[in-house]
Amino acid sequence: MAETTREYLVNALLAVGLLLVPLWALWADEPFTITLFTRIAILGLAGVGLNIALGLGGMVSFGHAVYFGVGGYVAGIMAQHAFNGAPILGLPASNQMLVIWPVAMIVSGLLAAVIGALSLRTTGIFFIMITLAFAQMVYYFAVSWPAYGGEDGLPIYVRNRFPGMNTMRPWDLYLICWGVLMAALALFAVLRASRFGAALMAIRQNPDRVSAVGIEPFGIRLAAFVLSGMLTGLAGALMADLARFASPAAMAWTMSGELIVIIILGGTGRLFGPVAGAAILVGFEVFFGGMTEHWKLWLGVVLLLVVLFARGGVLGLVAGRERLG
Amino acid sequence: MADPVLHLSNLRKSFGALQATDNVSLSLVPGEIHALIGPNGAGKSTLIAQVSGRLRPDSGSITFRGRDITGLSVAQRARLGLGRSFQISSLIPAYSARRNVMLAVQARQGHSFRLLRPVQRDASLTGQADAILRRVGLIERAAVPAEELSHGERRLLEIAVALALEPACFLLDEPMAGMGTEGVGALVGFLRDLKHSAPILLVEHDMDAVFALADRISVLVYGRIIATGSVDEIRADPRVREAYLGDAA
Questions:
Q1: Do B93 and A211 touch (CB under 8 A)?
Q2: Which residues of chain B does A213 touch, with a Cβ-Cβ cutoff of 8 Å?
Q3: Contact B14, B181 (CB under 8 A)
Q4: How confident is the model at residue B245 (pLDDT cuts 50, 70, 90)?
C-alpha cells in the first residue's frame, strides 16, 4: 500500500539477501554464519510482532519480552514432556513444531489479552511502566518456579521436529525461521492495508477523531496488542529451539528494550524495519562484540544518531519517508 | 413543532466552584439550524463536550432520537448518528483527505475488524469517499495528506468526515473559524442545504453567518441560556444586546 518503488526494492533485497548469504555459508561450510542469520530472522520476527503494537498502533510496550520468553517456555516445556512421555494438563505433549507454535501463540495471546486489557486503560509513560511491571512479574515467577528450571532455565535436549526437515541441521532450521518470518511479514502487510489497520494507524495519530466517527479505540488497540504478543511468542518458541534452551533471561526487561531498539533502528512501522533492525543488532554484537565486551556502547551511539538524525530508522534513510496514502 | 432529534434537559456541570453548565435545556428539531452563541468563556465548549460524550454532566439528561444517551461513550453516540466536527481541526494528519473520509465511511459500515481486504481497493470505501469530497469541493486535493492541506481545506474536510457518517444530526463546532470571507460564503450556502438532510446544532462566532443561517438561536452566558428565539427576536432582545452583541447588532 504505502511502499514506494524504492522501499519495495530495499525490502526485496533484504528478503533475498537473507536467503542468499546463509546459502553461501552453507556452501562454504560456515554453520556459525547460518546460526547468526537464524538469530536475525527470529529477532526480526519478534520485532515484526512488536511492530504491530508499537509501529502501527503507537503502543510503546516495554514488556514484550514476556511473550518472547513465554513462547520459549512453551517450546521448552512441551519438549521436556514429550521427551519424558509425561502429559501436560492431561493432554499428550508433542515435540512437533507445528503443534508447539499454535500453543505458544495461544498462550502468549491470552497473556497479552490480560496484560493489554489492564494496561490499555492508561497511555504514555504509564502504559510503558505498567507493561514493564507485568513483564517483570512473569519474569520473577519463571525464575522462582523450580519445576521448569527456575533461574537456571530449561534445556531442550533434542530440538523440536518439523516434517521433512532435520531441525538439528543449521540450514534446515534456518529455512524454517526464514519461512515463518516471511509469512509474518505478509501478515503484517495485509493487516496494515486492511480496515483494521486503517483504524489502528488512525488511532495512533488521533484517537479522539476515531472515537468521534464511532470506532471504539480500546477494542482495536487490544486486538492489535494480542496479535502482536502472539507473533512475538512464536519468535520466542523458535529462539528456544535455536538455543536449545528456554531461558528466563529472554523475559528480562533488557530483552524488551532490545526489541524496541530493533524497531527504532530499522524504522518504526515499516514493513522490513524490524528485519533491518535485527540485522544491525546481531551484526554489531558479532563485529564489535569480537573487539570489546562493551559493544553495546557503540550500539548506543548508533541508536542516538538514528533518533537524532534519522527518525525513520535505516529504512527511512534508504527508502525515504513513509506515506500512508 | 416536530419531536426533537436531540434534547438536552436541565444539564449541569461544574468544575470546582465554576458552574460551567447551569441548568441548560435545549432542543433540536428536524430541518432546523439551531445556533448556539455566547461570549468567550460562556461554556459553549463544555456544553458541546457533554453532547458529544467527552464529558459527563453532573446532572440532567441528553435524549437523542428518543433514547437517553447520557451514559454513552463518544463512539457509541457517533454510531447512533451524532456527527460532529471539531472547533480545531482534528483529522488524521498523515492520512490523505480521501483516507480521512474513508475512515468515517468504514466506521459507518461498521466493519473495522476486517483484517484481510485492502481498503485502497475497496470501492465501497473509495467510491463513497470521493463522492463526498466532490460534494464539498475537495476532490482535487483527495490524495494530499491532511497535515499538508490549507486551514480552509481542513475545515472543509472536517465537514466531509461528518457527512460521511450520514448522521441523524450534525454538531458543528465553529465550522467557519479562521475561514476567509469567500469560504464562509460558500459554507453558508452548503449548510443551508445540509439542514434538510439532518438538523444542525451550530456553535459559531461569525455573527453574520449565524444570522444568515439560524432558524433558532440560543444565547449562552455564564453557563446559562439567557434567551432562545428566532433571529429577529434575539437581535431585539435587550439582555442579549447587553451581554453579548453590544452595538454590533
A1: no
A2: 78, 103-104, 107-108, 161, 164-165
A3: no
A4: low
What's residue A44's pLDDT? Answer: 98
Tell the burial category of B222 from Cβ atoms under 10 Å away from its Cβ (0-12, 13-18, 19+): middle
CA separation for the pair A145, B196 (Å, rounded): 68
List of chain A residues whose C-beta atoms are within 8 Å of the C-beta of residue B99: 198, 324-325
CB A21 within 8 A of CB A275: no
Query: Tell me, what's the pLDDT at B114?
Result: 86
pLDDT (average), residues A39-65: 97
Q: How far is A220 from chain B (nearest CA, A)?
A: 7
Q: How confident is the model at residue B141 (pLDDT cuts 50, 70, 90)?
A: very high
Instruction: Please say whether the dihedral angle defined by the alpha carbons of residues A248, A251, A253 and A256, taken in this order, is positive or negative.
Output: positive
The backbone region for A132, taken as left when phi is positive above 0, alpha when psi lies in -120 to 50, beta otherwise, is alpha
B184 neighbors B214 (Cβ within 8 angstroms): no
Residue from B89, B115, B147 whose CB has the most chain A CBs within 10 Å, to mutate: B115
Which residue of B73, B87, B92, B144 to mutate against A (max A Cβ within 10 Å)?
B92
Contact criterion met (CB below 8 Å) for B163 and B132? yes
pLDDT tens readout for residues B113-136: 888 889 988 999 999 999 999 999
Q: Which pLDDT value is given to residue B91? A: 96
Distance in Å, alpha carbon of A117 to nearest chain B alpha carbon: 17
Amino acid, single-letter form, for residue A94: S
Burial of B85 (0-12, 13-18, 19+ CB in 10 A): buried
Q: How many Cα atoms within 13 Å fall on the side-chain side of residue B30?
A: 6
Helices A170-193 and A31-51 pack at an angle, to 10 degrees, of 20
Q: What is the pLDDT of residue B246?
A: 59
Q: What is the ipTM of this complex?
A: 0.91
Q: Would you call A214 and B79 a contact, using CB atoms and an 8 Å cutoff?
A: yes
Cβ A76 vs Cβ A240: under 8 Å: yes
Distance CA B25, CA B41 (A): 19
β-strands B169-173, B200-203 pairing:
parallel
